[in-house]
């Protein structure tokens, strides 16, 4: 079976003609020349016939919408031998087929990019019965996240946490000898974690009969790709595509080319521990790597151009992390920009600060000033897809690009650039491509910094509420009153909730403290379900746990808190 796109044929000199009736619906079996919809011109009504037989999988227009020749209107599931003379979409090159014939170099559904969003989309579509081809330039699946991002960084942060906890245990009566740091074994542990996950993905792909191609895919038309591998170049046509090509670290153009100046990928290689390292960027990635390298023995300076580290989070949530970093000996410069770097025996960095220019010398510089999408690297224009000036691919709520048979998900469609957003978008894209009526309609998307202490927030922030004049009521619970936090020796935490003054519903929440990234899920669910303070306070939480602090914050809002 194949999926075919049906377009408005030649309707003479008419354009922007309104649809007055849809004559078919998803699931209907239609014959060739059956009428599928009715148009109304200023002279008469016109039934548009189907150029082929098949089963309607998706209606892509609605009554009242205006269409012209070449407008995509429905999608059919047909037998492999079905052919039709259909209008070529106006946005596609004239030589591009609307539905390429089946062959060894044809894919019903192709997914470009095997990161969390891409492999999720591929696996979901396969589970729904589609033949799926997954393309990625890496020799292993998993994209940036599994190979050089989220997973290896958390492995290093785990090592750092163990070292920190061993040191902190001295204050509680446990003494340990000086730790022996074996970088080869640490890298081995990190690499083993990555290998286990990426190997698992290979097994999941085989189980679902997903065809995997290693290579870099570039669009050559609305239904065709060129795939460049190390020793081969091949052309692949497709019926539908899902773009999930992610993002890459944003560079600073004024920095010199020098192997001692690295991005997050280079930092995760952990070739050595530099005596002194500068981290440019006080966001999540920069701070996570800063803490890992500091615990392993580097002296760390952090430079952030804004007034605080982690600019997206509320100031009171960031404050405990800032204090802990400084107490540990890390230097933080806010409202400061790097104005230049000279590479010599060491790296000479010049800073513009509120007090004037300062010069310091470093053995390594980590650039962590954000990420930029890879939309400009896939030849999207050849497929009739426009990019934003920033390189994003605009999509609708069903993850469709300007070409309805081509979807895009993850970092390449916009902020926030988070793996868990990409996976949900991937499922939506796969399900829509398979004819299901779904959309990406997340009420909120949580953010987490896996620093020590962790920082997590979701929904409306207090900073944004003030900036946009949104009225909220705030309640918080300090962890110095949490039995569980005190027993862990980590009272430097805070749980905060924001409520709608009229309905009492949870609008947002933020947590700083141990395991904040795990705890934020309850607040995320509360927002999605429209829960209010009573729902949280009347939910019995186990004692003693850190999760109690969510309920205590709700009780503080209701005036029923007895733990303070």
From TrEMBL:
EC numbers for this chain: 1.8.1.4
Domain Lipoyl-binding: 3-77
GO-annotated molecular function: dihydrolipoyl dehydrogenase (NADH) activity
SUPFAM superfamilies reported for this sequence: FAD/NAD(P)-binding domain, FAD/NAD-linked reductases, dimerisation (C-terminal) domain, Single hybrid motif
Cofactor: (R)-lipoate; FAD
InterPro entries associated with the record: 2-oxoA_DH_lipoyl-BS, Biotin_lipoyl, Class-I_Pyr_Nuc-Dis_Oxidored, FAD/NAD-bd_sf, FAD/NAD-binding_dom, FAD/NAD-linked_Rdtase_dimer_sf, Lipoamide_DH, Pyr_nuc-diS_OxRdtase
Record keywords: Disulfide bond, FAD, Flavoprotein, Lipoyl, NAD, Oxidoreductase, Plasmid, Redox-active center
Cofactor binding annotation: Binds 1 FAD per subunit.
Annotated TM spans: none
Catalytic activity: N(6)-[(R)-dihydrolipoyl]-L-lysyl-[protein] + NAD(+) = N(6)-[(R)-lipoyl]-L-lysyl-[protein] + NADH + H(+)
Any Pfam family matching the protein: Pyr_redox_dim
Keyword Lipid biosynthesis: no
Membership in a protein family: Belongs to the class-I pyridine nucleotide-disulfide oxidoreductase family.
Miscellaneous section: The active site is a redox-active disulfide bond.
Protein name: Dihydrolipoyl dehydrogenase
Originating species: Ponticoccus alexandrii
